[in-house]
Amino acid sequence: MENYVQFSKEKYLLDSPPEKLRRELEEELKLSGSDLRSHGWYHGPVPREVSETLVLRNGDFLIRDCLTNAGDYVLTCRWNHEALHFKITKVLIKSSESRVQYLLEQESFDSVPALVCFYMSQRRPVSLQSSAQIYCPINRTLPLRYLEATFALANGRKGSAHSPSNQRGAYIKRRSVTMTDGLTTEKIIPHSPSTLHHKEAMRNCALSMDQIQEFRCPLSPVGEAPLSPAYSSVTKHRNTMGVKVLEVVPSSPVLRRSSEPQLSPSSSTNAPLQEPASGDHPPTVHGYLSDAAGGSYCELHPTPSPSPAPPPKSYVERLRVEEGRTAHPGKEDGSEPFTAPLVETVSSFNPSKYHSALMGAENKPLEMGILKRVKELLGEADAKTAAKHITKADCTVARILGVTKEMQKMMGVGSGLELLTLPHGHQLRLDLLERFYTMSIMVAVDLLGCTGSTEERASLLHKTIQLAAELKSGLGNMFGFAAVMRALELPQISRLQQTWSALRQRHTEGAILYEKKLKPFMKNMNDGKESCALSSTSFPHIIPLLSLLEKGMVVIEGAEPWESTETGVDVVMSHLEAARTIAHHGGIYCTNAETKLQGFQEREDLLEVFCTEFQMRLLWGSRGAEGSQAERYDKFDKVLTALSNKLEPPVKHSEL
């Protein structure tokens, strides 16, 4: 145990003389500009409460690690005399070469320095809601590894392995706070009658330091205001038991844990702190003493640690203690009690009860009068208008748009994109697959129903390609884009050689767009090699995920990409990784969809054409729409083949 204290790494870090810290900070700032550590406004693992004491004036800002999601960052700034925090999300974009993007609100950037440079130089608000602007960086005055060790000790945890200060092979090597590498005392010390004694000794040693020398860092941040707090001083103290323990004192002793260090302003003395009388409390920020009086968050003072409370019996109870909750939330704090999500067993599509202005209560499959009116509506709408109507219908079915509080309570989550990744999202997955296949058949019927000249069919084919391009690039609707692309790639469509030749002759740009861009992009998405930027996507590509989760439950023709023996596992893992991102960012997709459809004036008759229930009634009739999925798809595959052969009869072998 004495050796442990003697070679304590945190002791080595916190006992570094000022000159050594100054030189280390200079070495950090000399790193390449692409390295986040080379920027003074990056403060590493600084806690939220502490960061709020550093930004004092409007426009002050800093970047810190997100302590709840490893790999993400937080922009802390002050605007209108209020400290604001904005999460910077790290997103992996898969294309021919995978790359990382950092997303703040609706903007994405290649790096955090690029993000900061953009908002500082352009004076653009970082948030439309708050209109906050950043232009005065608050620079750190201590090296990152020192801050990491300080706050890891103060919080009783290790520094984040995802922090730039912990990168493998970097100039500053990662140093753990303890020598145990995250092992608990139960894993180190065998159970015995003296186990409690060993546990207490280990806890004290892990938080001990022989001496912390008092010093003032001579460096001041570049461009920092005189009133801005700096990482200024560290003082040494011993408690009455002879063990040095860092303690953080919240505003109320009830919320304090024995392992939390105490944070106090630099104006305070070395005398033991006493609980101020009622009404004499200094201003607090989220339960911590405020440094608004000019204090420094690097000045730590010890206080006697109360005897630790016995650990709660269950994991749930420990969570409630951690979050300051009572044993019965919802009864004492006024929140609603938890209700189990509803497991849906019936499809949201009900063609038999669907009322339409374009068809009667009963109809036959592909009824000529209805089909003629549908072709007129589709002919009147340009590609952009049709794409917006499709996106509105798609996002409504997927519960990206139009989700009420009651629907969220019923689902147990905030978005349908999250629901479809969960076990009780089975019915939603089936509904989305039904919509996908029905939409692609509808597009194919529109193409094969063009009985005019070859040039007319080529023109309609060109318009369909434009529709696919608009769904992909204009609206970011990968679901609708995949449905249209499936129709174009159906054998009944791809075999029309005369039509495709006329397309290449009369609409060369459309043919090139399809062959060189849309088709390869669709294949790469299915293979898990490419994805769209999160900031521009309203409906992500979920068809591979739905096929994975519902394999055997729906009729899916052909072999899937992951059924290849060479890259199958990689493809599956790629789609499962994408599912995690989709579930996590449901709110962003909703915002993107609302933004892209802002000011959109929908036409009820055109929107109805893209309604799944209407399409089921049109394709299979009022009675056939209620049949089994396997029968319906098999029947229409034969119908499409007959229509295709009628337009361009197959060449007989005797004629070759």
Automatic annotation (TrEMBL):
Alphabetical keyword list: Guanine-nucleotide releasing factor, SH2 domain
PROSITE patterns: RASGEF_CAT (PS50009), SH2 (PS50001)
One of the protein's GO biological processes: small GTPase-mediated signal transduction
Biased composition (Low complexity): 253-268
SUPFAM superfamilies given in the database record: Ras GEF (SSF48366), SH2 domain (SSF55550)
Pfam families according to UniProt: RasGEF, SH2
Region ranges (Disordered): 253-314
CDD domains per UniProt: SH2_BCAR3
GO molecular function: guanyl-nucleotide exchange factor activity; phosphotyrosine residue binding
Compositionally biased tracts (Pro residues): 303-313
Coiled coil: none
Domain Ras-GEF: 382-650
Occurrences of domain SH2 (ranges): 41-138
Superkingdom to which the source organism belongs: Eukaryota
PANTHER family documented for this protein: BREAST CANCER ANTI-ESTROGEN RESISTANCE PROTEIN 3 HOMOLOG-LIKE PROTEIN (PTHR14247), SH2 DOMAIN-CONTAINING PROTEIN 3C (PTHR14247:SF6)
Listed name of the protein: SH2 domain containing 3C
